[in-house]
Amino acid sequence: xxxxxxxxxxxxxxxxxxxxxxxxxxxxxxxxxxxxxxxxxxxxxxxxxxxxxxxxxxxxxxxxxxxxxxxxxxxxxxxxxxxxxxxxxxxxxxxxxxxxxxxxxxxxxxxxxxxxxxxxxxxxxxxxxxxxxxxxxxxxxxxxxxxxxxxxxxxxxxxxxxxxxxxxxxxxxxxxxxxxxxxxxxxxxxxxxxxxxxxxxxxxxxxxxxxxxxxxxxxxxxxxxxxxxxxxxxxxxxxxxxxxxxxxxxxxxxxxxxxxxxxxxxxxxxxxxxxxxxxxxxxxxxxxxxxxxxx
Length: 295
Prior knowledge:
By secondary structure, this protein is of the alpha+beta class. The protein is built from seven helices and 18 strands. It is about 25% helix and about 25% strand. The two termini are about 30 Å apart.
C-alpha cells in the first residue's frame, strides 16, 4: 500500500509533531544540545533507526545543537514521514534534548531573469548544482537552492549586490573555464575574479592562499577555501516556521524595513531594507491549500 501524501499543513496538524516545522526543503526540527557529544547521541539514535531504509534524513550537528530534516520525497511528505518524525522526537526526549522551532529557517537564492535558459547554465556551473525543472539545487543538500523568477524586462540598475563563491585554488581555473563556456563574461580578470551572467548579475570569485594545508598524507584530503559570503542579486526567500512569520516581519519593520508586496500573504511577504534590497519572508504550511483555493 502506497504512503499517503500530505500537504505541509496536514503534516504539521497530524499530532505529535510539536517539534517539527515544514520549510522549503522538507520537515525540520532543531534540538538544543549542550555539547557535540550530546548531539551525537541523537544522531546515533537516528542512524540506528534508519538503517538501510530509503528515507534518510539530513542531520547537521553544531556546537549548540542538532538540526534534523526529513527532505521531501518524490511526492512530498507522507504519513510514513509523520511516524518517522515522531520516532525521532521520542529519541530526543529520551536524551532530554529540547526542540526550539525559533532556531529554524531555510534560505533560497532568487535571481530575476528575463531569459531563464540563458542564465541558468551559468549559475549551475558556478555553484556546481544540479538542475531540477527550472531550479538549481545542491545535490548534497548543504547550501541554499536557487530559483529563477521571471522578469518582464531587464533591470540594469539592480547590480549593486552580488554573490561571492569561494573555490579551492587547485580547481579554480577549470571551474572558471566552465563558467565562461556556459555564458559567463569576465568583468575583472585580476583576483578576485568578477564574472557576470548574460543578464549582468555578477559573481565574485575570491581565491585565498594555496589550496593544500601541507604536503603530508594527513592533510591531502583538505583544501583552504574562504567562507562563501552570499549577497543576493535581487532577493532571497527566507522560509520560517509559520508560527514565527509575524514575529520576524514585526522585528524587521522595527529596524527600518518595509513591506513592498503582500498580495501573496500569508504565503509570503516581500520586505525591503532602507536601500531597497529585498527579502521574501515565506512559510510552507498552508501554501498548498491557499493555491488550491485561488484556482
